[in-house]
Amino acid sequence: MLSVVNEDGTTQSGSLMDDIVREGARRMLAAALEAEVNQYIAELAGERDEAGRRLVVRNGHHRERTVVTAAGPMAVKAPRVNDKRVDGETGERKRFSSKILTPWCRKSPKISEVLPLLYLHGLSSGDFVPAMEQFLGSAAGLSPATVTRLTKQWSDDHAAFQDRDLSGADYVYVWADGVHPKVRLGQARSCVLVLMGVRTDGRKELIALAEGLRESAESWADLLRDCRRRGMRDPELVVGDGAMGLWRALAEVFPQARHQRCWVHKTRNVINALPRSAEPGAKKALQEIYNAEDRAHAEKAVKDFGRAYGAKWPKAVKKITDDVDELLAFYGFPAEHWVHLRTTNPIESTFSTVKLRTKVTRGAGSPAAALAMVFKLAESAQARWRAITAPYLVALVRNGARFGRGVLVEREQEAAA
């Protein structure tokens, strides 16, 4: 029921608009819960006892509870089901469990996504209550003790994520990068080592996230060995920057994987070796390489780049010519995937949108807690990742299909016949 409106258009709990939104959301949630129960009972209407009485029926409502959502706190009375069926194997009574509102739910997942972001912006657990009160119109269910329990849960979630079985997840493409969120880690030079992959159905997925040294072969090898131990097989292609530690570790742990150097990092390195006056032309020349219509044209563009800049700036040209095979590896895969495979942008874009705080305050906690919060932010972002273009081609790549000029070879031969 809506609150009484004051002369200035506000109500006891905030603005009239906010009250209307919360009330509408509350009614929609109540209707959804009722529909869910009605469907459950209707599907089991044929389940009856020896006397012909239904075994699954309505049984009033549960006690009212407050659930914190993005629309604010809501008082909810979930419908209750009396399920008299017995599991034939365990002998236990079967129970209805709502997929919309789980039995112990007190806050929506979206609220849990907001909390680590606030934490990383510098808010301590004691600061959450007034901050979220401004956002939600109430601080119901968000005591400092609740937030402390959440941060402990983040660490547990990260530990479980890093120990999960990978044998059922086949990652065909993998991006690898070391990112530097400004939170307190174990060492001054530490970063967060990130592995992200593409499964055979084209979906992107976070594979691993751990602390390490970006340039250290041993840090990367530890992470890759752990993934191998948990069942990960060799990817077809790994995309990363020029950190030599990664490539040495890959050669040891996943020797079958091909290597692709990130063109964003490489372009930056080349430009840094040139005077400012040469930068515009060099950038355009580099684009001619990685935007070429096929590998043959890309190799010609590499030679053109060498002729144009080699006499005056040989070090800049050498950065391309020394790594030409790794820079052009993506041309051996489907043309639809090239835009995804020539840079580590999937990782870069995920972490660039998270504006992590620059000062370590009392809210930062231990290095393990900081790493767990970065994990929760990446996990939240993962829900919004889009599948790779032409996902059906990923399985063909894994099965050994060959591509010439970005086109499946068999199809190209059929067209020429």
TrEMBL record:
Pfam families documented for this protein: Transposase_mut
InterPro entries hit by this protein: Transposase_mutator
GO molecular function, one term: DNA binding
This protein's UniProt keywords: DNA recombination, DNA-binding, Transposable element, Transposition
Presence of keyword DNA-binding: yes
GO biological process: DNA transposition
Superkingdom of source: Bacteria
NCBIfam families, per database record: transpos_IS256
Family under the similarity heading: Belongs to the transposase mutator family.
Cited function: Required for the transposition of the insertion element.
Name of protein: Mutator family transposase
Native source species: Streptomyces lavendofoliae
